[in-house]
DNA sequence: CGATAATTTGACCGCTTGGTAAAACATTAC
DNA sequence: GTAATGTTTTACCAAGCGGTCAAATTATCG
């Protein structure tokens, strides 16, 4: 019998690990470009260089692949926020959070778009994760920000909307990449826009949040 | 013969106008929730309360419906930016631009998501519009902002990234609505989050862009 | 009214889709 | 080796898809 599919008890062969990785890599391409419904198993199998039944030997359904990817992405997506340090200096914490998120948009645009696709279409597969772990983490960090505001280190502001605005401005460069490129024009062939964006966003958030002493 | 489809020379019957409107309304629902590939003609026909062939009598293809919608949305989507007035006071212009965009996110979330879906998936249907009319308008307004900065009315900053950041922060409340709700929790049953968002964003951008005299 | 044009329907088509069955092939364990 | 297990392929569904067709129905106009 052959009932390995996702490893029954233990991940056995190295071939399994390899193939699963190849599938997930291909699936990231396809899902991030077409969304869940727009992606087809054939496309993914093709991109992974294997036949459809072969692919379905490792992941029983299209949803299984998607779940795997989403879980992984959700974890790394939250990393920068986790690193947010209550003990640190507010200004440099916010600055490095922005930098980190921008780097993710630059280096992992597919991951960002996969996530965006999912949320945009109502997050049918990850509602629980959003309401659970995500909310908890944000609640925790919002409290940190609020404390900073209370102690006068930054201006008083709604911490949730602050977090939202950092998310949205940074991810914009991954999710709306085509639009950004179209507007900026050809001259922006390189990755210079990320440096410019970093400069602008740091200025905006640092100055916008600086405690007003007057 | 019956070759009206989208009105040969002139829009004839009132019934045509009505049905087309119903179809577009239904299609907006379906496309904005599932993206182009994820949406099916049957779904749209169902939502519009008519049979598939009947729908196809008014729009020959799925793409035709989509194009119609996109064109319409792109126009209204740009309205607020068009209203951006070079003669006005920078602070109040930016403030009202943010307000307008937030109102659009609140009142026309489907339109925003339709657009987001399209851009997210590489804008296959509207690349030309992005590189043409959109870029031109943004270029024009960027010059306005740059002039403001030169004359010291606001701080020096990259006008393109400023526009991007206003787009992203405001649309976030439409496009990532599920996530916003999940994080803010049940208590945010009403539309209060839009007021809070407006307060936060106005503060952020106004203070962040205020000319520094020191 | 009757004729003509506009609208709607049901039946259908060819293709794609997610997924299966079973057998062929490869690998490992003894 | 050979037997057991793991992997891949070929052939195949049944359902869903975008779209067509011709006939039936309804509205419009003289």
TrEMBL record, chains A, B:
A Pfam family: TetR_C_3
Keywords: DNA-binding
Statement: the UniProt record of this protein carries the keyword DNA-binding: yes
Residue ranges occupied by any HTH tetR-type domain in the UniProt entry: 17-77
DNA-binding region coordinates: 40-59
A GO MF label: transcription cis-regulatory region binding
Keyword DNA-binding: yes
Superkingdom field: Bacteria
Swiss-Prot/TrEMBL GO biological process terms: negative regulation of DNA-templated transcription
Record protein name field: HTH-type transcriptional regulator RutR
Gene expressing this chain: rutR
